[in-house]
Specification:
Strand order of the largest sheet: 1-2-3-4
Structural class: alpha+beta
Number of strands: 4
Number of domains: 2
Shape: globular
CATH architecture of the largest domain: 3-Layer(aba) Sandwich
Strand content: 5-15%
Radius of gyration: 19 Å
Oligomer: single chain
Amino acid sequence: MRHKRAGRPPVKNHSTLLYLRQAKGLSQRTLGAKVGLRSTDISKFEHGRRGISLSKIIPLAQYFGVSCSTLLNNDFKAVFASMNKPIEINEAARARNIERQLGRSKSGFEAEDWVYLQEQEKLKDTEYCYAVNPNYSVNERSHFDILSFTPDGDFIYIEVKGSKGGLEEPFFMSTAELAFLEECMIQGLNYELHRVIYAKDPEKRKRIIYTPKEVLENYIYEPSNYLFRLKEEVL
């Protein structure tokens, strides 16, 4: 059964602006305030909508230290060529997430940090060694944790699920995360679920990487939480 997903579906033409914004862990509103634009301007540009004037693109390019053509043409190679160190994890945004999201804990981020390092190691001899972006996990609209790459530069959407124990220990996935997995499978996008077991034990820690099809074939899942909203006629 497909799940209706909150927010936008994954897109094959991932925006350079979205990537750069997530790398800094900024919301659309925060970025807009920094460059004198509205959040709706940022959203339109990230979604590839037409009609964005050059006067609005220039401050964005200046803020991120890239050319206007890099943003206009979604030139990721130019973005990666300008990077000389790994993207820093946004700890402040993580702290806000822990306070806001029930069930989200620091232990989950430990598994994500480890996977982030593994992905960097995988790409260390490629032009994408500094391109792995770990800050999607702090955006509740992303529905995945890390944007990584194949050695050829294709995007990989990574969801990380860690546990203190082994594979027999269950993990939780939101309805939106599950729907994102299904949507990636339908669209033929590279999606991986990284199951990190014994996440707190460096000697036993390991990861098992699943494709969307393997997740749905190897696991059974059931709803465990329900969100209740007051009916409009009661208000």
